[in-house]
Amino acid sequence: MIPELKNSSIKPSVIYADPPYTDDQYSRFYHLFETIALYDTPQLSGHGRYRTDRFRTPFSVKSTSAEALNALASGISDLGSDLVLSYPTNGLIYQRGVDPEKILSLHFEKVDCLSTIEHSHSTFGASKGPSKHAVVEQLFFARH
């Protein structure tokens, strides 16, 4: 979306982002709908018979999650937009030992954690453990 905004007359003053923070690739939930919409017969793989060409976000890979946030923050900053970021303290970026606030500080003059909210969060992997677990969600505001 950022490349499209760079080439557009639309310049948002604020962008809200709530990127994926677990290793669940959300595209696996939509592969059937994508195949119906594209009306094709793609190569399939795995137990779920997923498209081999399905989108995979770097936010859902522990080793690339911090770099993905860095690229997102850089792109939004280059647009001249401020960023509101929602991210939980149990997300992959924190699991790598990286603080999202430090990444945002590389691209914005002022970064504040506006809110921390504790709540129970439903999980996709309920068969692997409890269906809900405590989460601390943080809301950051990064501005120029």
Distance between the terminal alpha carbons, to the nearest Å?
A: 20 Å
Classification by helices and strands: alpha+beta
Integer count of domains: 1
Biggest sheet, open or closed, and with what strands and sense?
A: 4 strands, mixed
Order of helices and strands: HEHEEHEHHEE
Helix percent band: 25-40%
- Total number of β-strand segments? 6
Count of helical segments? Answer: 5
Mean pLDDT score, rounded?
A: 84
Low-confidence stretches: none
Shape: globular
Rounded to an integer in angstroms, the radius of gyration calculated over CA atoms is 17 Å
The quaternary structure here is single chain
Percentage beta strand: 25-35%
Widest β-sheet, arrangement of strands:
1-4-6-5
Task: Set down the secondary structure blueprint.
Elements: H1 2-6, E1 14-17, H2 31-38, E2 44-45, E3 50-51, H3 65-79, E4 82-88, H4 92-95, H5 100-105, E5 110-122, E6 132-143
Protein name: site-specific DNA-methyltransferase (adenine-specific)
Pfam families: MethyltransfD12 (PF02086)
GO molecular function: nucleic acid binding; site-specific DNA-methyltransferase (adenine-specific) activity
